[in-house]
Amino acid sequence: MWSRLIAVFAALAFVVVMAAPTSMVMAETKEPSVAQKAQQDKMRNCAKEWDRRKQTEGISGKTAYQAFMSICLKSETTDPRSVQIPASATTKADKPKDEKKGTKKDKKEKKEAKEEKKETKEKAKEEKDYSKDKKAKKKKDKDEDKA
Fold first, then answer.
1. What is the largest CA-CA distance in the chain?
2. Which of 2, 6, 36, 115 has its CA 20 to 30 A from that of 93?
């Protein structure tokens, strides 16, 4: 009985010791420094400017976004509207949707053709399985007739 009691107290002490540091960490939340706040504001402003340019100029794409954000965050000015995106940052993948090869109709047709091909394969497989089952049944009936 004493051993159980000691084990319970040991387990309780372990839980208390493990829970204490986490509650202390949660209580300590630092406010960002002035430099960190300035960087956060700059990131927020650059992101807003990117969204505005996407709407008005029709630019998009990962490469262009990364180039813009890189230049914007490195710039000394606080106004992100003065940032220019280099032409080398835009690639084929960055072209607007209407300039990309293939239209929605083409993609839809490809998808339908792919589905048709898949259905044809499934039907062929089912027919093959059916013929195998039929042959196996005939063989089984033949073996039963012999016995």
1. 96
2. 115
Residue 94: CB partners within 8 Å, gap ≥ 6?
59, 60, 61, 62, 63, 64
Over the stretch 67-101, which tens digit does the pLDDT of each residue have?
A: 888 888 888 776 667 777 766 665 545 455 555 55
- As a 3-state breakdown, the chain gives helix, strand, coil percent values, each rounded to 5, of 80, 0, 20
89-135: per-residue pLDDT in tens?
655 454 555 555 567 777 888 888 889 888 888 888 888 777 777 77
Using CA atoms, how far apart are residues 48 and 56, in angstroms rounded to an integer?
Answer: 12
Report DSSP state, residue 82. Answer: G
**Count H helices, E strands: the chain?**
4, 0
Compute CA distances 45 → 34, 56, 77, 83, 118, whole Å: 16, 16, 11, 12, 49
